[in-house]
Design goal:
alpha+beta, Immunoglobulin-like, C8orf32 fold, 7-stranded antiparallel beta sheet, 4-stranded antiparallel beta sheet, 5 helices, 13 strands, globular
Length: 276
């Protein structure tokens, strides 16, 4: 499928700010199942854009605005072609859980086994994961069981959390949004020694076009497989992948700092259209 995506973010400041330094992670990734046909990033006030790849191979655009300004607009326009990745069968048993330590031989696995800013790997999380996994002996089946638990245990509720909410608080209040569902599943997988990474991107459905978050698990011998705990499914052609990291902190669409008023408003709009 081919998608046309317009993502617009506007910051309005109560009084002029200056020395604004920003990083933008909005360029979709190119892969075997996703082609970036075009990408254009605009910034107002106008600024020189530089870009580079971070440790996880995400594209980061950097810009600075030293002069005073009362607003900041960041607008990206992407055209992306997606193809469905091979789906791993729900009853597949590709790799024994008792041998999951072998996952450390794979590139990028170590970071995705550790606690991170929003992901917990405490003994309490481990005991919860053990209860959920039960007598499952396969890595893929354990991951699916954990995803089903997150999907049924948590209630999706808009504005119930913030981008700074930790997974322990999400488990305590049993509600959250897509990034919270992803963070909880990340923690449950990691304590079972299953490498798990956070994914940011877009989800295009008939109901809505929006930014979205899901995750991927590493199954030795198979590779990274995407899981969406918000919808209890394996992502397909309606998912557009932007960036991966340990959690949301690694993939925030726009991050940075400036000198001036902390009193500001934020407006975000995403428009996704299917291109024939």
């Amino acid at each position: 499928m081919k998608w046309d995506i317009l993502h617009r973010t506007r910051f309005n400041y109560a009084s002029p700010v200056r020395e604004s330094f920003n990083e933008v992670r909005l360029q979709p990734q190119a892969s075997d199942f996703q082609t970036v046909d075009s990408f254009l990033l605009k910034v107002l006030p106008a600024a020189r854009l530089r870009h580079y790849l971070d440790f996880y191979h995400n594209t980061i655009h950097h810009f600075e605005i030293p002069e005073p300004h009362s607003s900041l607009v960041v607008e990206s326009h992407s055209r992306v072609t997606t193809r469905s990745a091979p789906v791993l069968a729900a009853d597949a048993t590709p790799f024994p859980l008792e041998r999951i330590d072998q996952a450390l031989r794979w590139e990028r696995s170590y970071d995705f086994l550790q606690a991170s800013r929003f992901v917990d790997t405490s003994p309490e999380t481990w005991r919860l994961a053990l209860d959920v996994v039960g007598d499952q002996r396969d890595t893929w089946q354990a991951a699916l069981a954990l995803m089903r638990f997150v999907y049924t245990h948590l209630k999706y509720e808009s504005f119930s959390t913030s981008v700074h909410t930790h997974m322990k608080d999400v488990l305590a209040q049993r509600r959250g949004v897509c990034q919270d569902f992803a963070h909880v599943l990340l923690g449950l997988c990691r304590v079972m020694k299953i490498p798990a990474c956070y994914v940011s991107g877009y989800l295009a459905t008939e109901a809505a076009s929006a930014t979205h978050a899901w995750m991927e698990v590493l199954i030795p011998g198979v590779g990274w497989r995407a899981l969406d705990p918000t919808h209890n499914c394996q992502p397909g052609e309606t998912y557009v992948k932007i960036a991966v990291g340990r959690d949301y902190a690694d993939v925030a669409p726009i991050s940075g700092h400036y000198v001036g008023s902390t009193n500001r408003t934020l407006e975000v709009s995403v428009q996704i259209q299917s291109v024939e």
